[in-house]
Structures are given as structure tokens and as C-alpha cells.
Amino acid sequence: MAFRSLHPQSGRGRQAEARRNDLVVLEAARDVFAAQGADAPISAVAARAGVGVGTLYRRYGSKAELLQRLCVLAMEQALAAAGDALAAADPWDGLCGYIAACVELRSGALASLAGQIETTAEMRDTAGRSMARLDEIVTRAQAAGLLRADVTALDISWLIEQFSRRPPGRLAEAEERNVRSRLVAIALDGLRARPVPAPGHRGTLPGHPPRRDHYVNRWSPGS
Predict the structure, then answer these.
(1) 2 part of a folded domain
(2) In sequence order, what are the beta bridge partners of 192?
(3) What's the whole-model pTM score?
(4) What's the domain count of the chain?
(5) Residue 187's domain spans which residues?
(6) What pLDDT band is residue 1 in, cutting at 50, 70 and 90?
(7) Lower CB count within 10 Å: N or C terminus of the chain?
């Protein structure tokens, strides 16, 4: 299915321009933090975005404020993808489109910041709405008998997070995209519900479902 662009280029006025600038910085931050981790300096983000460090600090009061804003923007993009998924006529297409969109955006690339910055009320509210929409996407696909019953919304969140990381070594962008698309297709095939397990297949996922408190509490500083 075709998902609308999550990188808006149109709009007028200072507010629209500011949002476009924020998205440029967000893309840069994803690249930098995915490659260098939470300790990456803001100067690396600024250089990647093609702006000066002073420009960032004139817009944001501190590194923490900048990172909090970027986290909200990333979750808002995931919410937009969730809206498209729930609007899809076919629940499986909606789920696959959501995962593909979030992986393309590398929406989990800022996960390395967990525990490094204070979570704001806006971050908590946006995260709650995002998880609620993902719950809807998963429930809808399972009700249609298309998604295996032992998969949870948190499984999907962790999956997207894993695919948001940069692979080791240096790959050309086209080859990295090729590898990622193949692995996402393999993962999606593993999520499909099957009436009869294949020979030699255990039929159920190992271990236990991820715990939501573990997923959420890691964002508490010092956790």
C-alpha cells in the first residue's frame, strides 16, 4: 500500500519553516545517535544537519531540550504512520506498511537516549498515544487472523527499534537499504499467522512477551 510522505515539504509561514528545520535536525540526529550512541555531541548533529551549534542553541535552550523535542517529533511521525495503517482496507497491509514506514524513518534510532534525558509530559503523552495506536493495529490484524496470536505490540516496537540501528561496517546507502528491505521482508513473513505450523516448527514464540514496564522505565534517568 502507498503511505503518504512523512517528510512534509510544503506549508507556509514561520511555523511550517521551523518544523521543516526541525525535521532536518531530526534526520541528522538519527544518523548520529544510531552510529555513535547517546554520548554523541550536539556538534556532530549540527554538522550533519548543516547548521551551526549556535543556531541549535538559539532555538533550544539546552541539549536536553533539543533531544526532548526530537523524541516527540519521532513519535509524531510514528503516529502518522499508525493513522495510515488503521485507514488501510487490509489489516495485514496496514501492519506491514506501518513497520516499513517506521523502519524507513528509523523511528527507534533515538532509543539510545533512554535514561539519558528527563522525559517530559509531552513525551509521555505522545508515547502513550503512539502505543495505543499500535495496539489497535496489532489487535486488528490478529482479529482478522492475519497476525500470529502470540505477537504483542511491544514485540513490534522492539523489532522496529532493532531495524533502526546502523549495521556494522561501512555500506553504501543503496546496499544498506537493500539489506534492510530483505531482512524486514523476512521478519514480516515470520509475523504471519499460519493455520498449521511447518514441519519441525515449534509453533509458538520462545520466552515470554516483553514487559511494558521494562520498555517504559528504561527512559527514567539512572534506570
Answers:
(1) no
(2) 147
(3) 0.79
(4) 1
(5) 64-196+209-217
(6) very low
(7) C
